[in-house]
Amino acid sequence: MKAEIISVGTELLLGHTVNTDAAHVARELSALGVDLLHAHTVGDNAGRLEAALREALERSDLVITTGGLGPTDDDLTKETVARVAAAPLVEHADSLRRLKEYFGTRPMSANQRKQAFLPRGCVAFPNAVGTAPGCAVPLAKGKTVILLPGPPSELLPMLRDSVVPFLQQRTNEVIASFMVRTFGIGEGAAAERIADLTGGANPTAATYATGGEMFVRVTAKAKDAASAASLAAPLVEAVRRRLGDVVYGVNVTGLESVVVPELIRRGLSLATAESCTGGLLAKRITDQPGASAVFGVGLVTYANAAKTRLLGVPEDLLRAQGAVSPEVARSMAANVRARYNSTFGIGITGVAGPDGGTPEKPVGLVYIALSDEKETRLRVMRPQGRYLGREWTRSRAASHALDLLRRRLFGLPSEPD
Amino acid sequence: MKAEIISVGTELLLGHTVNTDAAHVARELSALGVDLLHAHTVGDNAGRLEAALREALERSDLVITTGGLGPTDDDLTKETVARVAAAPLVEHADSLRRLKEYFGTRPMSANQRKQAFLPRGCVAFPNAVGTAPGCAVPLAKGKTVILLPGPPSELLPMLRDSVVPFLQQRTNEVIASFMVRTFGIGEGAAAERIADLTGGANPTAATYATGGEMFVRVTAKAKDAASAASLAAPLVEAVRRRLGDVVYGVNVTGLESVVVPELIRRGLSLATAESCTGGLLAKRITDQPGASAVFGVGLVTYANAAKTRLLGVPEDLLRAQGAVSPEVARSMAANVRARYNSTFGIGITGVAGPDGGTPEKPVGLVYIALSDEKETRLRVMRPQGRYLGREWTRSRAASHALDLLRRRLFGLPSEPD
Predict the structure, then answer these.
(1) What is the CATH number of domain B256-409?
(2) To the nearest whole angstrom, how far is the Cα of A192 from the nearest Cα of chain B?
(3) How far is B90 from chain A (nearest CA, A)?
(4) Do A71 and B188 touch (CB under 8 A)?
(5) Which CATH number fits domain A174-250: 3.30.70.2860, 3.40.50.10470, 3.10.450.50, 3.30.200.210?
(6) What is the pLDDT of residues A295-340, one digit of tens each?
(7) pTM above 0.90?
(8) C or N: which end of chain B has fewer Cβ atoms within 10 Å?
(9) Which of A381, A411, A403, A415 is CA-nearest to residue A281?
């Protein structure tokens, strides 16, 4: 099955909103083995939307639109699809009932009520979060247009609960996709190491770099999920072996999603003391549900006085070495561990920029220390040739801390092989 | 000038990467008054890319591609554009020099060297961060194709330093765009309040909702930036007046970008004690450069023992009221302020979910307290009708905390009017 996505919204063409909807829809289509050949974005303009729709329907079997279903006059997707499908909008009883339920005793305007009108003959998809239902509209030649709301909080549950089951009944091929995620290797080096593994047609392997991390995607197509997974498995294993211990997981969401569950599983605990990352490490740890079982205390000690008072970093040391130094990072890690009774302590101190750098301690220099009952390991993150920004530096430093802990937890050497 | 964006990359069509590049490019085009009518995404497939390019060039004066400029065999954009433009790829001396500089003493493969080849007659854009230069390729009938690299860290500086100046010389209309940002009002309510302000053609006003916040975008077109800004200004003011104190800023990046600079300006300080937000509030505060001047200490006290030890929340209180209670939030805020000598203290405690809810204290219930030398204000964030997820709950709770502080700093009532 060939598909296209049409995202509708002037805010997307003005760059006010990043199109995460298209990525969510694309991921689900890929998992269902639907070939997504094009994605388009058009503004809140009925003429251009209609042209894009007609063009997409000529090439593809399935067109999924996102956005333009709301109550305002700008919301034109439903009207446009109804015109293309020659299916007039009619009031949909169940959608009206849900809409009334949503508003309860509050008054409902005519515009709000408009949301209960759907193209005749469609399959309605209830909106679990907001007011505008989605739907699947059947067209001539077995083609289908699926309309989804724009807000991701509404689109995501509808995609999962209605669209995927709807499409599953209509496809007969499945793609299994495995993301082999790494930390500590560049895309060029990784591509070289697995060069001879990337030539196949099914399964396939390809390298990608994003946000300072590099991953290899292995995909396989087959009749069902289990066969596709079996087909991909040997290639996933080969890629893992070839890349070595920079691989931190397959189909995981980030270093924290590997580290936190392992701490939970082994009943270990962690305390953090952050300076330049300012809570980002704690935030990433507590992104994981259940983190409270292993993460009792996180300290953001920006001020030197806080480093001394909360962590017992000696004033002399701060004076002699400066707050950004290997010694202070070590002291932060060792003391946060000892003071707050944790198995591990992490200390991070550095210069996130854009200001505050000196020739000796340039912007981008960060010291990261991990302490356990026996020793304290240190990792130095040096500025790249070019400054990539405060956000990049902070995010990278937090990843280094999680990678250090991962290596300690899984008995790996402190640095990549 | 009419423009289209073509994003190239199979990873986009598989949903592995969110297309932030298109949003960045769109924003710059909008600021330059270039009308972006369509954005497309195609995979790493020369045939489909060529078809999309030819189609876009029929409709538009300018086509900007992102992605597919790297050293791997998948990177086909340059070759495809060269074919469409009938401009063979030739080695570009300055790009080769920069590439050699980048590699230094490391060996450079033939594939890497390929990046110094550009379509004959183009204007090259140096890559300040990575290896692949961008370029602008002139075509017949005064049309232009601009090629940009895919990684945002490479695209962004090239966009700012090369593409914008290149396009500025070629456009004669400018759009001024003002985002009136709010916290504490829904899109429907806001749209009603400004309904009579949204009908104009130039300037225009429209509501948008994203990530739990709602904003109004006001745009105006004129010959130059100053005239466009003057044209928009009265409408911006009218929208602000109509919406009242839920407006926290215009063209700002978030609540923290209003609150932190105000603290800095007035020499005030802040300490935070977070439970369910787990460092997210500290992270958002320290996203702001210069936050160290006002933010000395942030505590993540997940464990009750940490709340008692670091904050002096009485054990009796925790036992009697539970960690998620108005009393504990107030105690956290008042104590973090007093213990760590800050003008303000913030305490957050709640149930972020997905687990840990009870009938009395359901998932999504969060207490947020702000303490100063005189009093402690409390805000209760109750679960929405439907649970929107851990990330949403945490993010929203951190926003509530920043909004409470904003209202205190600017002398506004604790709750929206």
Answers:
(1) 3.90.950.20
(2) 10
(3) 24
(4) yes
(5) 3.30.70.2860
(6) 989 999 988 999 999 999 999 999 999 999 999 999 999 999 999 9
(7) no
(8) C
(9) A403
